[in-house]
Amino acid sequence: MKKKFYITTPIYYTNQAPHIGTAYTTIAADVLARYHRQKGDDVLFLTGTDEHGEKIACAAEKAGKSPQEFVDGIVEKFKKNWKTLNISNDDFIRTTGLRHKKGVAKFLLKLEKSNKIYQDEYRGLYCTGCEKFITKKELIDGKCPDHQKEPELISETNYFFKFTDFLPQVKKLIKDNKILIEPKERKKEVLSLINQDLGNFSISRQNVTWGIPLPFDQKQNVWVWVEALQNYVTAIGYEDNKKKFNQYWPADLHLVAKDIVKFHAIFWPALLLAVGLKPPKRIFVHGFLTSDGQKMSKSLGNAIDPIHLADKYGLDSLRYFLLREFAFGQDGDFSIKRLEERYNADLANGLGNLVSRILTLSAKANIKNTSSNELSSEIKSTQAKYHQAIKQIKFHEALESIWRLIGVCDEYIEKNKPWQLVKDNQKKFSQVISSLLNTIKEITVLLEPFMPDTSKKILSQLKGNKKAEALFPRL
Ligand code: MSP
After folding, report:
1. Which band of pLDDT confidence, cut at 50, 70 and 90, is reported for residue 298?
2. 257 Cβ inside 6 Å of ligand 1
3. Residue 452 lies in a domain
4. Cβ(233) to ligand 1 under 6 A?
5. For the whole model, what pTM was predicted?
């Protein structure tokens, strides 16, 4: 039977079009989805949009539109951009969609039945940018550090979730790697957060009109975070399509950045346990892309448009750069200068040049019997490193291993001087060219999840189907 692989991205807020930060997570998820498809796994790759809440309602009002009309427009942009970035998601969940609303209602009824819900007065500070209650301790100069905005003081009667009842269980699952949280530092952080006396949280809001009503009290809406997390189960037919649900749940991997790790690593498993579902198997937390050291975000207005970069440098160059330049678990400062440097060094002079050299040389070769590949042990060791790196979600190391093999090919060419061999040793010449051709084919396989178009182009150039144009013209 095929092994299943259910991978998700966060569902993104629809207050603005996607930017490079959201593209970063989505491209990373795409690489893993493609990798697993290549392996023959039964992949379900889910992304989508988080469309309810105060923040979205405010953005709609500013734009002079109804919330629904507003989010419909933004969602189109997300879908279009993901297509442009060659994202191979199998599904796209919208929180304003019927399947989500229905699933959330069922989930909340189950939660209510669990006797873990009670009413209480809530007074606290709320950041609409984060869509979450925030403590004084988290503020810097009285403002939310991520949104540079003062939070609002809110006082209302809400429904609370007896979340702390589940903390010992969640803690144990994380400790034992039953919910694998990576990188290791994040696991430690989450465990220390659990030890810090977290209080119960409210699952509803009284005055937010743009949301999903609580099924047991229509006067309140579900707190947007609680319903958003549920997208991971409503998308696969929670309480609606048992077969599909059982096929894919629990998720194999939730990809998130560090801003939302608490929700995914603590709140979400607790909610799932409360309704009798298994927690996700693995959560990988990546860093932030920054611009001059500050987190890039829609709210701060310092975000870069990935479509513009893809237009200018080529889509695969962007995909390559994002995953090669930064260690996935760590922050990285995005710079056009570095992008251009890597483009010239790794793509134009590295991969592009190698392919063009091999094509030129092979045009002169008459390879009859493809003799053994002299680089086969190098290929094997590259593959081993590559698969190990992908397993650990170390994209930069996986790419590094491919580029090391590209370097090996260049050295092999220099050492064997095929332009000389073609004149005085045809047999050796064809052995060298056949080794190179075979190696470059292996490289296209490893490259495919990261750079699907490039991989296809190389294969088609090797077959002689296409006039060989430079893959990455120098800038
Ligand atoms: N809607 C919530 C998520 C709900 S998931 C059940 C949300 N949305 S968001 O639009 O703000 O997206 C946050 C996510 O976008 C981050 O966790 C990360 O995956 C990605 N990123 C947004 N800005 C980013 C950077 N500057 N750098 C890296 N990733 C970034 O939170």
Report:
1. low
2. yes
3. yes
4. no
5. 0.94
